[in-house]
Structure formats: C-alpha cells, structure tokens
Amino acid sequence: MQDEIKTESQEKEVMPSLEELLKAAELQAAEHHDAWLRAKAETENVRRRAADDIDRARKFAIENFASELLAVKDSLEAALADPSVSVETLKSGVELTLKQLAAAFAKFNLTTIDPQGEKFDPHLHQAIQMVDSDQPANTVVTVLQKGYRLHDRILRPALVMVSRGPGG
Description:
alpha+beta, Nucleotide Exchange Factor Grpe, Chain A, domain 2, three-stranded mixed sheet
C-alpha cells in the first residue's frame, strides 16, 4: 500500500497542476504578443523607410541630369558676359554649347525625333497640317518642331506637316 501512495505522489509531482499550465500558457501568450508587436513595429518602420526612399528618389531623380546642364548654362552665361564677342565667335560658342547639350542628352538617353521624309507615325508625330506635295501620302514634308524621347517614352511628339500625296 505504501508503494501505491509513493507512486501516486510521484505522479502528482511529475504532472503539473492546472494553475501551472495556465501560467505557462499565459507566459507563452505574452511572449507571442510581444513578438507580434515587435514584428508589426518593424513592418511599419520598413514601410516608412520605403516611402521616404521613394520621396527622395522622386525629389532628386534629375540631379545627375541637372548637373550636366549646369555646364551648358555656364557656357551660355560666359558667351553673354563677353562684351567684345563677334558674331562668328558667338556662333562658334553656341555650336559648342549645343554639342555640350547634345552630349548631356545622349548620356541620359534623351533622343531627338526628327522625322523629315519619314512616314507619319501618330505615336511619334503630331500633324498640324496636310499639304500638297509630290511626296507619297502621309510622308512628313516639314518638321516645325523636333520631338524628344526619353528611353522609350515620348516626352514631346514632333510637330510636322504631312503630304496629302501627289495631286492632293
């Protein structure tokens, strides 16, 4: 009989009480809640940092391009600042400045759309007038204003006059 009592008391010592189980579950629930709050806060911080990065990228997206244009502006100001400049000197200075601008455009994939003699394309050109011409119909006969493309996006279509065709 004493053996039975010892076994029963040993089982009671091995088996935790309901109160102990409840405390352990509450402790584990508190740990999970704390971990969830930390994960939620970290997610919010990541979202906020990403939004800040996007704002900075939007704000300073043209910084490199603007830096390239500063040299062009400096050249134009230097040309205007010289009171003894001749027409020939001014013309050659403007040509060099235009080359600087073209180099800046090329560096940032800003390309010119100059469709003289090409077939009219409404995605690249804006026709403002149709004219009689010996060119085939829908051919660009006059470019009034060049267009520009940044990578694959049209910034400004070319303003053109288009042929009606021979005998219009």
